[in-house]
Description:
The protein has 79 residues and is mostly beta strands. Strand 4 (56-59) and strand 5 form a beta hairpin. It has one helix at 17-26, and strands spanning 14-16, 30-33, 46-53, 56-59, 66-69, 73-78.
Amino acid sequence: xxxxxxxxxxxxxxYKAKELDSFVSTTDIVLLASNASxxxxxxxxxxxxxxxxxxxFEHSAKDGEKYxxxxxxxxxxxx
Length: 79
């Protein structure tokens, strides 16, 4: 069994919501979840990391431009 504190996410692995909560609190990343705002509602719920990317494009409402964000992002889904 893993401790709640993790230092990386691996595609294909399962993680509990409380582990993801701790990871997000200490790491500059983005999580994209399949169950919207309920991600942290049940600390014991498990999620699978589906995909990992090194960055993404984001549209700025301020100036209408698109900017590449050099920030790791993970797509996760409820198991």
